[in-house]
Amino acid sequence: MVPSRRTWNLGATPSLRGLWRVGRAPEPEPGMARPAPAPASPAARPFPHTGPGRLRTGRGKDTPVCGDEDSSARSAARPALAQCRALSVDWAGPGSPHGLYLTLQVEHLKEKLISQAQEVSRLRSELGGTDLEKHRDLLMVENERLRQEMRRCEAELQELRAKPAGPCPGCEHSQESAQLRDKLSQLQLEMAESKGMLSELNLEVQQKTDRLAEVELRLKDCLAEKAQEEERLSRRLRDSHETIASLRAQSPPVKYVIKTVEVESSKTKQALSESQARNQHLQEQVAMQRQVLKEMEQQLQSSHQLTARLRAQIAMYESELERAHGQMLEEMQSLEEDKNRAIEEAFARAQVEMKAVHENLAGVRTNLLTLQPALRTLTNDYNGLKRQVRGFPLLLQEALRSVKAEIGQAIEEVNSNNQELLRKYRRELQLRKKCHNELVRLKGNIRVIARVRPVTKEDGEGPEATNAVTFDADDDSIIHLLHKGKPVSFELDKVFSPQASQQDVFQEVQALITSCIDGFNVCIFAYGQTGAGKTYTMEGTPENPGINQRALQLLFSEVQEKASDWEYTITVSAAEIYNEVLRDLLGKEPQEKLEIRLCPDGSGQLYVPGLTEFQVQSVDDINKVFEFGHTNRTTEFTNLNEHSSRSHALLIVTVRGMDCSTGLRTTGKLNLVDLAGSERVGKSGAEGSRLREAQHINKSLSALGDVIAALRSRQGHVPFRNSKLTYLLQDSLSGDSKTLMVVQVSPVEKNTSETLYSLKFAERVRSVELGPGLRRAELGSWSSQEHLEWEPACQTPQPSARAHSAPSSGTSSRPGSIRRKLQPSA
Ligand code: ADP
Ligand code: MG
């Protein structure tokens, strides 16, 4: 295709390097001269080099990249081509047709390169990561948002799961369900949006993928085209080389052309290599873009996966929500049913009640109709009463006044009556006391009775156990004793035969006990030898109690009878005197020695500090006290019978009373004494402790006899202090107190000696001076009897001498009693 002879206007040909720079760098090189406009002919211009490796272009300036400038470059190249064709005749000169052709070729190549560069840049800008990156970022943001949404949904789901499945009460539940419904719809909306967005993104990604494939195809085409072009260019170059070689072989002008071509060809080579480098660079960029594309595809894939996962989760949430929704609907349904049921029930009830109310109303209406006349009469009555009420205060005042006056009068009358009664009562009280005193005085303040026990198994058999005691059928105060064959008679205040019961004996002492309630002190002694029946008389047996228990029972019944006027307290103490030592039988320490002391108040009264007192209110209480005392005594002494026979046992009952109307206070003391055995041990040659015991017993019993004798004969000095017993009983023996001595007697022959001694003692106690009046009367009764023969001293009594005189008898306290001459039967 290369013409053989042509003239090329090289001055107007743009250099390849300049061309390259056109496609590559728009900036003109510093120091580069502004190109002059193309000369009108190639001859008019020399062929100067503007600088090493640099040719001036036909356009005279560097071509910018923009399309306009590119087209202007092409349009600038066209006249040059036409010029070449016109000059095609001259091949050998610088403006030969071959050179021109080459220039045109080069021009054409440049154009192609420019267009390719443009294409590449366009592709690059198309492939350029900006949009895709933006998309990717957007997708990432969207993913992030979806992830957050998913987390939120999960949390809500957890919350829903954590909530109890059972029906929730009332409106709270419905509110929650409404909220859930809202949330559900919101989520559904969001899901729809997400779906839309996802499909858009998918579409976009699809488009991008298509475009990318297209671009790749185009790139491939371009590369193929470029390879072809390169091939062609290299072929041309080879041709050119050949042409140059042939031209070298020709004339000098040809040489010059060759040289020029050589020069040009090297530049073209350089441009080619640059173009190749550029191509290489572009290929690298394409590879890079492919890499980026691959990554993005991967990202897209992962985003697809994520989207699928999210879709699955959304589906799960949807099913969960649907389930919750279903549950909620069910609950709402059941609630609705409940509500309807309740409404129906309430309605039915209300209907029933309504019916009842209607019935009631009807009844009330009829009642009202019947009540109206009654109401009228009531109103009339009310009005009448109102009138009366208005006048009532006056009437009331009047009535009150008169009633007050009547009451006042009645109170006065009652008061005066009361005063009178009180006065009379006091007088009666005094009189009673006086009478009692008189009675006792008549009977004697000190009385002596005898009680003979029956013969017992213990008495044995034989002559020693025969009965030696007889009684007077007409006089219950006489006792006969056959002692050593001689009959001896004694007269006492009363004699009880073995047939006498406990009650019989008690009746004799009853008056004394009653006087104790009136404030008198009383002493009852049981005297006699051991085994004569002292304890039996005082204590008795559980089936047949003695004086002690009966006395307390009597006190209780008397006190109860007087309970409306008097308040009484009864206290009990129990003591024992052994060998002149006083011990508390009810105390916690019965061994403790008690002392008798004068009251520190100067009243002259005696008291025993530490002596236990029990308040008793019933027979049970008494039994408990007796039992306690008995237990104390039993634990103290191994042989109680023996011990009790050698000690004096005292039961002290104190009766304190207060007259509720007068406030008068009384205190009476009842001393019930079971004396020690009176047998005369000392005389039978006893020794040691037995002798000491006997001496103490003798001393105390003698002292008792002396005291009683002194009292009865009203001596100035009464030897109370001679023994513990008399000293302790001082209060109860002196003054207007009363004493009863029960002399216990054994009936059998072997005891006659002791019996005689006991009866003598009894008589001695009884026979002492009783007071002038009584004595006179008694003596008067004796005067007509033979007593004088027996005891002349009786006629002119000498109290002190008689008191201590031995067996004296013949006196009688009973008027009209039979007087006898008592003398030994021998
Ligand atoms: P004392 O206390 O004087 O030593 P007791 O009272 O122990 O004598 O009497 C001795 C015995 O005689 C007892 O067994 C008692 O039961 C009996 N005894 C005494 N008096 C009577 C009586 N009146 N009736 C029946 N038995 C009696
Ligand atoms: Mg006894």
From TrEMBL:
Low complexity bias (residue ranges): 30-48
Region listing for Disordered, in residue ranges: 19-74, 787-826
Stretches with biased composition (Basic residues): 817-826
Domain Kinesin motor: residue ranges: 445-768
Residue ranges, compositional bias (Polar residues): 806-815
One of the GO biological process terms: microtubule-based movement
One Pfam family from the record: Kinesin
Coiled coil feature spans: 106-232, 279-345, 404-431
Source superkingdom: Eukaryota
Keyword annotations of the record: ATP-binding, Cell junction, Coiled coil, Cytoplasm, Cytoplasmic vesicle, Cytoskeleton, Membrane, Microtubule, Motor protein, Nucleotide-binding, Phosphoprotein
Subcellular location: Cell junction, Adherens junction; Cytoplasm, Cytoskeleton, Microtubule organizing center, Centrosome; Cytoplasmic vesicle membrane
Membrane topology: Peripheral membrane protein
CDD domains associated with the record: KISc_C_terminal (cd01366)
Stored SMART domains: KISc
GO molecular function term, any single one: microtubule binding
InterPro entries in the cross-refs: Kinesin-like_fam, Kinesin_motor_CS, Kinesin_motor_dom, Kinesin_motor_dom_sf, P-loop_NTPase
Any one GO CC term of the record: microtubule
Primary subcellular site in the record, as a coarse category: other
List of residues binding ATP: 528-535
Functional note: Minus-end microtubule-dependent motor protein. Involved in apically targeted transport. Required for zonula adherens maintenance.
Family: Belongs to the TRAFAC class myosin-kinesin ATPase superfamily. Kinesin family.
Protein name, per record: Kinesin-like protein
